[in-house]
C-alpha cells in the first residue's frame, strides 16, 4: 500500500489492531494538539526503537513501516478530529519521524531564504530579506535533537557534547549550522540557509536591483580577463550568491578548483574540482582545514582558485596563490566596507603564525587583489552592491584604493522603506583597464560613466 494511502486511512480513522499496545488517550482540541503529537512521537519511538536508524532499511520500506504505525496509533487514539485534520496531522507526524519535522514545508517553499529554529520556540524564517515569525515549532528539544542528528549523520558529521556545534549541508545544497548543549543554553539551535535549485544568474541580480546592467557587464569583463576579485559584506548580504554569479563568467576551457567549508557554489563549467574541508573525527584526528586544501590546490594545476570564504590563516596561502600566477581567483570575506576587508585580510594573515611585518603583508595584499566588490543589505530587505573599488597599490605604508562604482545613498527611501538609490559609476577610469585592452576586449564608451577621467581621485 502506498504511503499516501496509509496516511489517508489514518485520516479517516479506520480501525486497526493495537498489537498489544495500550491505546493513546485522546487529547482535547486547541493548544493540546502539540501535546498529542508528542505522545504519538513517544509511542512511535517506543514501538520502533532503533529500527528508525537502521541503515539496512530502504527509504521506501522505512516510510511504509512508519506510516503503518501512525495509522494504528491514530486509530487507537480516537482523536476528535475531522478527516482533513487527521490527514494533515498524520503528514506532520510522518515528517517529524522520518523527515525534518516542521521545517519541511519551509524547505519546500522557494520564497524562503533562511530558517531559524531556537529550541521549541516558534520557528523564524527570512523572506524577501525580512525575518518573520511563524506558528510552527518543534514539539520537544528531543525531537529537534533527533532532526539535527539525522542531518549531520547523512553527511558523515557528528554532534555531541564533545563537539557541540557543526556545519553541514542538506541533499539540495542548503547550508546547515547546529549548536547544542552545553553551548546552546536554552536548547538546540538550528539554522538553515537555503539555496535555489537553479542558481541565480547575472540577469537575476540585475532584476533584483543588486547591480546595474553596466556594473554587471564590467564585473563580467573583470572575471574574463583574470582579475583577482574579493567579494565583501556582512552576514546575509548575498556574498556567496554574487560569488557564484561571478564564477559563472569564467571561461569553460579553464580548470577551476573550489575550496569551501561546506559546499555551496553551483558551477556549470565542465572542468571543475570541488574540495570541502573536514572536521576531526571522534578521536580528534583526520582534520583537513581550508588552508590545507588551498595548499593542495596549488599542486592540482588550477587556472582559477575559488575560496568560498576566507576566515582564517588560509588568507596567506590564498594571497600567495594570487601572487604566483593564479590570476582570476575569487573569494569572499565578512566585513563592513572595502577598507575593512583589506584590514581584515591583514589580521587573518597574522593568524597564520608567520612572522611578517605589517608592511610586507600589505604589499602582498595590494599586489594580489585587483578589485573589491562590497554588498550591503538594506532595511527594506534588498541586497545591493554599494561599492566597487580597485586596489591600486601602496603609497607609503598604506594600501591605496579607488572607487569605480558607488551607491547613491542621497536618494533616500520611499514611503514603504524601499531604497531609491542606485549604484553609479564615479567617472574614474581604473588602472586595470589596460588589461582589457591587452586581452583585446572592446569597452563600452559609458562603462565608467560618461565623463570617465584618467587615473585619479584615489582614496587612502
Give the full name of the CATH homologous superfamily of the largest domain: P-loop containing nucleotide triphosphate hydrolases
How many helices in DSSP terms? 14
CATH topology-level fold name of the largest domain = Rossmann fold
Poorly predicted residue ranges: 6-30, 452-460
Mean pLDDT: 81
Shape: elongated
Please trace the helix and strand order, writing H or E for each element: HHHHHEEEHEEEHHEHEEHEHEHHEEEEH
Strand order of the largest sheet: 9-8-10-11-7-12-13-14-15
In total, the number of strands is 15
Number of domains: 3
Describe the 3D structure.
- With 460 residues, this protein is of the alpha/beta class.
- It has three domains: 96 residues, no CATH class; 91 residues, 2-Layer Sandwich (Beta-Lactamase), CATH 3.30.450; 237 residues, 3-Layer(aba) Sandwich (Rossmann fold).
- It is built from 14 helices and 15 strands.
- The strands form two sheets. Strands 9-8-10-11-7-12-13-14-15 form a nine-stranded mixed sheet, with helices on both faces. The protein has a six-stranded antiparallel sheet with strand order 3-2-1-6-5-4, with helices on one face.
- A hairpin with a 2-residue loop joins β2 and β3.
- The C terminus is likely disordered.
Amino acid at each position: 500500500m502506498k504511503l499516501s494511502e496509509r496516511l489517508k486511512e489514518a485520516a479517516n480513522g479506520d480501525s486497526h489492531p493495537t498489537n498489544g499496545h495500550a491505546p493513546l488517550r485522546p487529547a482535547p482540541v486547541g493548544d493540546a494538539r502539540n501535546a498529542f503529537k508528542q505522545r504519538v512521537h513517544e509511542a512511535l519511538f517506543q514501538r520502533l526503537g532503533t529500527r528508525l536508524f537502521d541503515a539496512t532499511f530502504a527509504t521506501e520500506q522505512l516510510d511504509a513501516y512508519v506510516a503503518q504505525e501512525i495509522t494504528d496509533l491514530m486509530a487507537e487514539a480516537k482523536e476528535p478530529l475531522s478527516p482533513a485534520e487527521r490527514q494533515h496531522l498524520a503528514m506532520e507526524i510522518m515528517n517529524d519521524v522520518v523527515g525534518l519535522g516542521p521545517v519541511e514545508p519551509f524547505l519546500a517553499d522557494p520564497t524562503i531564504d533562511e530558517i531559524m529554529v531556537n529550541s521549541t520556540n516558534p520557528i523564524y524564517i527570512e523572506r524577501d530579506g525580512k525575518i518573520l515569525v511563524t506558528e510552527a515549532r518543534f514539539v520537544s528539544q528531543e525531537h529537534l535533537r533527533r532532526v539535527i542528528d539525522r542531518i549531520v549523520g547523512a553527511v558523515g558529521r557528528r554532534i555531541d557534547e564533545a563537539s557541540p556545534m557543526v556545519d553541514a549541508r542538506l541533499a539540495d545544497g542548503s547550508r546547515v549550522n547546529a549548536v547544542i548543549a552545553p553551548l546552546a543554553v536554552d536548547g538546540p539551535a538550528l539554522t538553515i540557509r537555503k539555496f535555489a535549485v537553479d542558481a541565480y544568474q547575472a540577469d537575476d541580480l540585475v532584476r533584483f536591483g543588486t547591480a546595474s546592467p553596466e556594473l554587471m557587464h564590467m564585473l563580467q569583463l573583470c572575471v574574463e580577463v583574470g582579475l583577482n576579485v574579493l567579494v565583501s559584506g556582512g552576514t546575509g548580504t548575498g556574498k556567496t550568491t554574487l560569488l557564484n554569479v561571478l564564477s559563472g563568467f569564467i571561461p569553460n576551457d579553464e580548470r577551476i578548483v573550489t575550496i569551501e567549508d561546506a559546499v555551496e557554489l553551483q558551477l556549470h563549467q565542465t572542468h571543475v574540482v570541488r574540495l570541502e574541508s573536514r572536521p576531526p573525527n571522534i578521536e580528534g584526528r583526520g582534520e583537513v582545514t581550508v588552508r590545507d586544501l588551498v595548499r593542495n590546490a596549488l599542486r592540482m594545476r588550477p587556472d582559477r582558485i575559488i575560496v568560498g570564504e576566507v576566515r582564517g590563516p588560509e588568507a596567506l596561502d590564498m594571497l600567495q596563490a594570487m601572487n604566483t600566477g593564479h590570476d582570476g581567483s575569487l573569494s569572499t570575506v565578512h566585513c563592513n566596507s572595502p577598507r575593512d576587508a583589506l584590514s581584515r585580510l591583514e589580521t587573518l594573515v597574522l593568524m597564520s603564525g608567520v612572522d611578517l611585518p605589517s608592511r610586507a603583508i600589505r604589499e602582498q595584499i595590494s599586489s594580489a587583489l585587483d578589485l573589491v566588490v562590497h554588498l550591503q543589505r538594506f532595511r527594506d530587505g534588498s541586497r545591493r552592491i554599494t561599492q566597487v573599488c580597485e586596489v591600486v597599490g601602496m603609497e607609503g605604508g598604506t594600501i591605496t584604493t579607488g572607487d569605480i562604482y558607488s551607491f547613491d545613498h542621497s536618494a533616500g527611501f520611499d514611503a514603504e522603506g524601499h531604497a531609491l538609490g542606485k549604484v553609479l559609476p564615479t567617472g574614474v577610469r581604473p588602472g586595470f583597464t589596460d588589461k582589457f585592452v591587452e586581452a583585446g576586449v572592446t569597452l563600452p564608451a559609458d562603462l565608467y560613466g560618461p565623463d570617465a577621467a584618467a587615473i585619479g581621485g584615489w582614496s587612502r
